[in-house]
């Protein structure tokens, strides 16, 4: 699973592309603001944000009627009382630091319908000893007004809802300074008004080992400072970092969140996700892309404020001479598919403001990535249109329907009524931070691939109904079509044969 950026994924690059001379950026990134501080604003992009890390809502100061009181002075009291009480019990955690038994696997195993309410100042502390805070498979568990910190979940595992049980509600919680993911996700999970901060890998890992996650709601949260363990450097190309990672989620509403200052991507949907609505979020100052939508389907991305993202990873790419248009909104082998049930049959990106990020939107297909290909970084996974991966082999893969269905396609992407603002002096760059792109590589691998040559590049550029129109551009934007070597001005982009951005306006001299 996970994406390998094109400079690593392409097994062969033409000599002409490899020898392109490119000037990188010569200034250094600004200091990272402290997570929880107010976001930057401008007249064009001001939007209220979920400042829940700095201003968490207080829990009940007294135990609700019928609640079981949990004593922080008694080690293991929470787990013991959970075990001894029936399902649907409410637990009220007194102010203070609550601890589990000093065993790495000690954890709270809720029963169906349990509710855990933290008083003001209630903290469940793993003391860098316990791996998990809340686990098990009980459904419909609620956690409110509780701080969970200091747990040491392993790589790709999570601290709260460790076993991805269904129907959990996480509200007004602070999940911070843990290893691994602060939170896992199950079907019908609701994560609202919570602070997911400074966790070692992800703020939340929406992954379920068996079955798919559906009906996920992520609303009004602050998601900041995650991937403190810098996993991409520890395991290069792992695709295993970000504010939130989504895996095979079928139906998600991600709205009203403030996703900022994460090391890596802000939001990353990776491998067979479908039916997303990503709206009314503020995505800013993430080291990598604000949003990656990879090998996935059918989404609406609208009314988001997206600013100051991708400056660290984009600059790093430019400095090493990479010609790929690293983007702030990156769609990799993802598109609309009417045969897969969703609230939309395309990917529609509209009414967003993108301001002073490193580049804009890139639509990409790796011609060598398809079911059964050794270049498929989502190892063992196939598209949602082919149940038997072994069918994607010669000779059948060269004919309909497998020729189309064995690859994830960037198609039916509609990008309109957005505002793209770029001032290179604000971003701190001299080149390659100004790209909008639709492209693929030259197919070469494996030797039995039916997608060799320029077939995929031609398809994504001209045949798969990918369209920009009615957008507003402020600043010196450039456009890349077909392959990384074709860098166009706005007139070439709008002209034959690409005919993109009909009805759009370009004001190149106004800056940001």
TrEMBL record:
Residues 164-318 form the Carbohydrate-binding/sugar hydrolysis domain. Transmembrane segments: none annotated. The keyword Repeat applies. Pfam families: Beta_helix. Residues 82-91 have a biased composition (Polar residues). Keywords: Repeat, Signal. InterPro entries: Beta_helix, Carb-bd_sugar_hydrolysis-dom, PbH1, Pectin_lyas_fold, Pectin_lyase_fold/virulence. It comes from the Bacteria. Residues 1-23 form the signal peptide. Residues 77-96, 491-512 are annotated as: Disordered. This is Right-handed parallel beta-helix repeat-containing protein. It comes from Streptomyces koelreuteriae.
